[in-house]
Structure formats: structure tokens, C-alpha cells
Amino acid sequence: MARIQRDQKISEIMTGDPVTVERDTPIAEVARQMRDADTGAILVTDNGRLFGIATDRDIAVRAVADGLDPDTPADQVTTTDLRTLSPGDSVDDAIQTMRQDDVRRLPIVDGNRPVGIVSLGDLAIERDEDSVLADISSEPANN
Questions:
Q1: How far is CA 101 from the centre of its chain?
Q2: What confidence score (pLDDT) does residue 39 get?
Q3: For residue 76, which phi and psi values (nearest 5 degrees)?
Q4: What is the pLDDT of residue 123?
Q5: What is the pTM of this model?
Q6: CA 117, chain centre distance (Å)
Q7: pLDDT at 139
């Protein structure tokens, strides 16, 4: 049964302490960090401030498919036009933002410093735990 809790804060369901890399990090290292953390997205920072997000798809489509060198800096394949929320925003705000802007992941920032990330799967687990997406998202990592 889905858990419906109004006024729930995003800080209650976000993945805290997200994996981050600086924008000059080589994309090969970004891919290794994704593998090691079993994540498909890494937040890219500029001196600790959120710069963008690099996803496994970004690396495949913007780097590998275009023949970029593995030493190419992360900022060359990073999505920088981001939608973000703060820890005090509501889960409903996250759902609305994802739906309106067609995004699968939202960085959570305090000021402009990343403090978490919430994914479409996180929201499915929280709001529709019987859905296929929630079931897949709650499975243990494939290592």
C-alpha cells in the first residue's frame, strides 16, 4: 500500500552525502566512481558548488559515442541546466518538479552546495511502493 504523507520534507527521503567530483575530473574517473558507488549519476562541482550532473547516459552518448578521450574533463559531458531543491522543500515539490521538467534526478542543495540527490525511483518507493519502478529501485545493487 502506498504511503501518503503530506508535507514530508525531501530531506527525509533523499540520498544524503551524494557522490561528487570536481568539473576537471577525467570522465574515466567519473565512470569508475559511478561503478564503485553503484550509481548512474554523479554531481559535478566547481570548488564545492554545484556545477552540473553527469549521468551514465551522458558518458555513453556525449563521450564514448563521440570518441572523446577518457581524460576529457567531466564538465565537457555534464548537464548544467539543472532543477534543484533544498532539504526543506516537500516531496510533493519534487514530484511536481520532476513531472513538469521531465527529469529523473534532482540535486538537493543547501545554498549552492550539494547535500543530497533524489531520484524518480526514490519517489516511487516513497509514494507508490507497489509499483514496478519501486520494486526495481529497491533491489540490491548488481555487483
A1: 14
A2: 93
A3: -80, -15
A4: 85
A5: 0.84
A6: 5
A7: 45
Residue 113: name the closest of 87, 139, 91 by CA.
Answer: 87
Q: What is the pLDDT of residues 111-133, one digit of tens each?
A: 999 999 999 888 877 765 543 33
* CB contact at 8 A, 8 and 105: no
List CB contacts of 140: < 8 A, sequence separation 6 or more: none
Question: 1-28: per-residue pLDDT in tens?
Answer: 444 456 799 999 999 999 999 999 999 9
**One-letter amino acid identity for 128?**
D
Strands annotated E in the chain: 15-16, 20-22, 41-46, 49-55, 105-110, 113-119
DSSP one-letter string for 87-99:
TTSBHHHHHHHHH
Burial call 27-50: b when 16+ CB within 10 Å, e when fewer = beebbebbeeeebbbbbbbeeeeb
- Strands 113-119, 15-16: parallel, antiparallel or unpaired by DSSP? antiparallel
Q: φ, ψ for residue 62 (rounded to 5)? A: -90, -20
